[in-house]
Amino acid sequence: MGGSLRVAVLGAPGVGKTAIIRQFLFGDYPERHQPTGAPRLYRPAVLLDGAVYDLSIRDGDGAEPARGPGGPEEWPDPKDWSLQDTDAFVLVYDICSPDSFDYVKALRQRIAEARPAGAPEAPILVVGNKRDRQRLRFGPRRALAALVRRGWRCGYLECSAKYNWHVLRLFRELLRCALVRARPAHPALRLQGALHPAHCSLM
Ligand SMILES: Nc1nc2c(ncn2[C@@H]2O[C@H](COP(=O)(O)OP(=O)(O)OP(=O)(O)O)[C@@H](O)[C@H]2O)c(=O)[nH]1
Questions:
Q1: What is the maximal distance between C-alpha atoms in the chain?
Q2: How far apart are the first and last CA of the chain?
Q3: How confident is the model at residue 182 (pLDDT cuts 50, 70, 90)?
Q4: Residue 66, pLDDT above cutoff 60
Q5: What ipTM does this complex have?
Q6: What is the DSSP-derived secondary structure letter of residue 33?
Q7: Does the keyword section mention Nucleotide-binding (predicted)?
Q8: Contact in structure between 170 and 125 (CB atoms under 8 Å)
Q9: Strands 45-48 and 40-42
């Protein structure tokens, strides 16, 4: 048994958080947007690199700002989010929506502020979803990836939940990185490092 990991999947409404999670867990895809409302928790077991992990995947968690004109200053107190208990974050934006990218930027800032002083940083993977709509994207992939990786020091990946493209890969990378942080004795595993073929599967 490898242990347990808590993952939060966050992002603006409609970017595809639920679609990504459902593709990963059940191989299905919601064509219609049904706002998630209250946060949902999924508890799969996954096999990663030969060890079994109990995952808690939270779809939204109340960390988002109030819907409406409010900005990050109107977000709930970080103490209420239990962000400190989260081992890894997936911050999802829609590659066709600059607003959703700004949203992720603000979320990442908020997560950093919520971390208690001296606590190790939880890995953050920024995910550009809806890659199948590539022709409508608002910015070049290379520039966005460079900003996120070098400027924000987060991982970056693009996927299409609709076509199940890179969905497994995003969870595999995130989990590997979270495990490296938990066990620094394995420095060879890096979020943006060499990717092995699928050694991550649901049980
Ligand atoms: N073209 C395309 N549409 C997608 C993709 N992923 C999700 N969608 C669509 O985007 C809409 C919103 O998807 P959801 O997964 O419900 O988004 P969400 O982020 O969970 O939304 P909230 O629950 O409101 O926060 C749905 O109509 C999906 O079909 C994708 O990869 N490509």
A1: 47
A2: 13
A3: low
A4: no
A5: 0.99
A6: -
A7: yes
A8: yes
A9: unpaired
Q: Say if residues 169 and 41 touch (Cβ distance below 8 Å).
A: no
Task: State which of 34-43, 55-64, 189-198 shows the largest mean pLDDT.
Answer: 34-43
Which residues, including other chains, have CB under 8 Å from residue 40's CB and lie 6 or more apart?
18, 58, 59, 60
* Of 10, 33, 57, 158, best ligand 1 pocket probe by most atoms within 8 Å of the beta carbon: 33
Q: Is the CB of 33 under 6 A from ligand 1?
A: yes
Classified as helix, coil or strand, 34 is coil
Number of the ligand 1 atom closest to the C-alpha atom of 30: 29
Which contacts of 61-64 are long-range, i.e. CB under 8 A and separated by 24 or more positions? 61/8, 61/10, 63/8, 63/10, 63/107, 63/110, 63/111, 64/10, 64/12, 64/13, 64/103, 64/107
Ligand 1 proximity of 19 Cβ (cutoff 6 Å): yes
Report which protein residue has its CA nearest ligand 1's atom 21.
Answer: 14
- Rounded to the nearest angstrom, the distance between the alpha carbon of 124 and the centre of ligand 1 is 20
Residue pair 45/53 in contact (Cβ under 8 Å)? The answer is yes
Q: Does ligand 1 lie within 6 Å of residue 95's CB atom? A: no
Determine if ligand 1 sits within 6 Å of the CB of residue 160. Answer: yes
CA gap 77, 93 in Å, rounded: 23
Q: How far apart are CA 49 and CA 54, in angstroms?
A: 14
